[in-house]
Amino acid sequence: MNKNKTILQGFEWYLEPNASHWRYVKERSGAIKDAGITAVWLPPAYKGAQGIHDVGYGTYDLYDLGEFDQKGSVPTKYGTKQEYHDLIDALHYHGVDVYADIVFDHFLGADETEEVEAIRFKDNDRNEVIGEPEKIAAWTKFTFPNRHQAYSDYTWTWKNFKGVNHDENTGENAIWGFEGKHWESAVDHENGNYDYLMGADLDMDYQETVEQLDLWGRWYLHQSHVDGFRIDAVKHIRFSFFIDWLKKRNEEAGRELFAVGEYWNGEVERLENYLDSCGGMMHLFDVPLHFNLFHASSSNGSYDMRTIFDHTLLTSRQDWAVTFVDNHDTQEGQSLQSWVEDWFKLQAYSLILLRDTGIPCVFYTDVFDVQTGTIKEDMRILMKVRECLAYGSQMDYFDDPDIVGFTRHGDPSYENSGVAIVLTNAKGGSKRMSVGAMQAGHTFVDCLGNCDERLIIEEDGRADFPVKDGSVSVWINESALAQVK
Ligand code: CA
Predict the structure, then answer these.
(1) Are residues 228 and 291 both part of a single domain?
(2) What's the pTM?
(3) Both 375 and 398 in a single domain?
(4) Does the pLDDT at position 2 exceed 80?
(5) Phi/psi at 480 (nearest 5 deg)?
(6) Number of domains making up the chain
(7) Contact assessment for residue 477 and residue 385, using Cβ atoms and an 8 Å cutoff
């Protein structure tokens, strides 16, 4: 049986823009491994339009991994190219995989404007044209003067893009599509057509765009030796685009690279449709589950916990779900703000970390104590329980609106494995559950220390597992405590 996978999202939105993050994570690569984390998703490593202040989603130069003096600095927000490579080497040394974040929807921060014939579209209905074609000055020419054509001599022009949202001639902002082009049809249908998100929108109908992204992918994989990709904003990009792109990367790597896409929508049907359209080449983040967790945390105990997995990818497409509690976009003040409240964090994490389906992705600020730079003890324990004990068949007890639970019966190839989880978003109590007759007579304790009872498992494998108000208890064999502490 394979060990359980756990992904760490290795950054957050509000890191200091001081080019130190690659070094910071590198110093913690041993601790990351020891906590049971098997892969780290790193933020976009190339230069964004805001230079050292760019979180990474404003793609400027894909070939500048913190190597050229562009947009005000040599390093990116996270450090230099050398430091990036050193970090990847350190994680690989510890046997931890690295997933790269790639942003192929748009470019920002062009070096020059171009006169382009364009037509305006209505902001909330991108199928509706406003007015006549007009000449605008679009920020679409990317020459990367300070890279001096290193790695690539390609100049990106308006032909590589479908549209922009700014006319430098008039200073006006609106959504312009370039004359003679059409928005991609196989994209999300929010706002009529959600091809356009921001900046200069990449045109996948233009063969040179596809070729250049492919050339870059080959170069980047060769440079970085990453083990997989987290792909940004897939709902704004032709749904079939990544089939070919990922196939080629897998061929070059000589193995199947991991891939997970960000399709931000709470309707599971849209995610299922995307999974069908992309040929099973990537997983998707389980956004509907995130919203369930968010609502459970922010409804004063009135949320019906029996429905926590309803209408989620984890339920309908379990092999394709990357489960998460929060990310850099759901943080306070960010575009998709929907932060799962702190009192419910451990309940939420026990629901994604200890089950037999889904690949959990734990968020940076939930894992690291920002003050001390160490891994938070409760999270470390949950991840260790996942790594060492959360194996074997699963029994569900989602039979009460407040208190729910599930058990794992253990696997003989993992010493002392087996676990019983009971949690509530309201008043405490207890739940009668079975951990299997193989555990009969064993003493179980709450490894999170929220309850201090010592439970003896009955002859048929059952016991009454308690939980405190608004809390979670994770009951394990007392003999396994040393494995997770
Ligand atoms: Ca797009």
Answers:
(1) yes
(2) 0.97
(3) no
(4) no
(5) -90, -5
(6) 3
(7) no
